[in-house]
Specification:
The protein is built from 11 helices and 2 strands. The protein has 391 residues and is mostly helical. A two-stranded antiparallel ribbon has the order 1-2.
């Protein structure tokens, strides 16, 4: 989101001018934030470009676009804002300001959109199961992402260059000293923009993650039932093997005489002794391959459930961090629009907007480095072991 706001003129107030030590600390911290953002996202992009296995998964293409957007946050948004912190004013005029606003809004909105796409992809991975790869194809994902980039870019371009023609007032921004989107002065327009750009995506992510947890809960219930059937089948099979041989023929004959029926038309039952000497009633399956099939199904279900629980836990963490980074700034934007910027301190703007931008430095850790394939590739690139020549 565009960091500039109607409160930017406060930068020229003597009470807000930073001393040299404070400026030095601010520049240093900004340098660290920019470096972490750029390096982290470059590693993700290079990993995707070099590893064929990474490129095969549709989710990783979404992560690639998230990394591109976050990289531009470090190169454009943070870097230009640092120049404004050092000079305490906007130096580049109206056209560059509007272009900068377009880029800033587009890349931050794309970052949000990719987070929604990742959550949607994970939901389909659980909901569609066997149909996932057919339903969520790489082609569809690419088309959706290209359409998202295009629509967001067109929208903010119209807002930046077309807003002055939608109002009767004279130019509200003095581009010789300050830079921000003019629509921020209008409370209704600001509220709608925040609603569409942040609130709705955040609610979508929360709803998707809730649905994911509900489906995992149902999977857990099915897994428990499969496990019970498997244990029963194992016990039945072992009982059948125990009586097989000299006892099994007589056991089947006694069972046939007792129930006076054909064993081929109804399940055969036997009574045998357990390990503790107690008598239990068993249903012996005539299909000896069924227990093995149940074992395989249970192992597959357990492994899939384990992956889904791990994935859902990560997504829950992503939602919490996404909300913590984005909501404070959006609330400040709305409050400032309704009170014409007079009720929000400049320090509050600085803190909330930089927390929002810091999300671009955190995303590579959350969405890429938690991916085992990405993590291995990045670790290999970072470590760069020296190979000593052999004697």
């Amino acid at each position: 989101m565009d960091s500039t706001s109607p409160t930017i003129p406060l930068l020229n107030d003597s009470q807000n001018v930073m001393g040299s030590p404070e400026l030095t600390v601010t520049v240093f911290l900004y340098g660290v934030l920019i470096s972490v953002t750029v390096i982290g996202n470059v590693l993700v992009i290079v990993s995707y470009a070099q590893d064929k296995e990474i490129r095969k998964r549709t989710t990783n293409f979404i992560i690639l676009n998230l990394a591109i957007a976050d990289l531009l946050v470090g190169l454009v948004s943070l870097t230009i804002n640092l120049s404004r912190i050092v000079t305490r004013r906007w130096l580049f005029g109206e056209t560059v300001c509007k272009l900068y606003g377009i880029v800033d809004y587009v890349i931050t909105n794309i970052s949000v959109a990719m987070i929604v796409f990742i959550s949607l992809d994970r939901y389909y991975a659980i909901a569609k199961l066997l149909e996932y790869h057919r339903f969520v194809s790489l082609y569809r994902v690419k088309v959706s992402i290209i359409a998202t980039w295009s629509s967001i870019t067109v929208y903010w371009s119209l807002v930046a260059f077309g807003w002055p023609y939608l109002q009767d007032e004279i130019q509200a921004v003095d581009y010789s000293t300050e830079c921000y989107m003019e629509y921020l002065i209008n409370p209704i327009a600001t509220f709608v923009a925040v609603l569409v750009a942040t609130v709705i995506p955040l609610l979508s992510v929360v709803i998707l993650n809730t649905l994911i947890f509900l489906k995992i809960k149902r999977q857990w219930g099915r897994f428990r039932r499969i496990k019970v059937r498997q244990n029963s089948a194992k016990f039945v099979t072992s009982a059948e093997q125990g009586v097989r041989g000299s006892n099994f023929a007589s056991l089947r004959q006694n069972r046939a005489e007792r129930y006076s029926t054909d064993t081929s038309q109804r399940p055969s039952q036997s009574r045998c002794r357990g390990s503790a000497g107690s008598t239990v009633s068993l249903t012996v399956s005539l299909d000896h391959n069924a227990p093995l099939s149940d074992v395989i199904k249970t192992k597959v279900a357990r492994e899939k459930l384990r992956r889904n629980v791990k994935m859902a836990s990560k997504l829950a963490l992503y939602v919490l961090i996404f909300g913590a980074c984005w909501l404070p700034y959006q609330i400040i934007v709305i409050v400032s629009a309704f009170c014409s910027g007079s009720c929000v301190h400049k320090l509050t703007w600085d803190i909330t907007e930089n927390i929002l931008w810091a999300n671009s430095a955190i995303n590579p850790l959350l969405y890429a480095l938690t991916n085992r394939r990405f993590r291995r590739k990045v670790t290999a690139m970072v470590s760069c072991p020296l190979r000593l020549p052999r004697n």
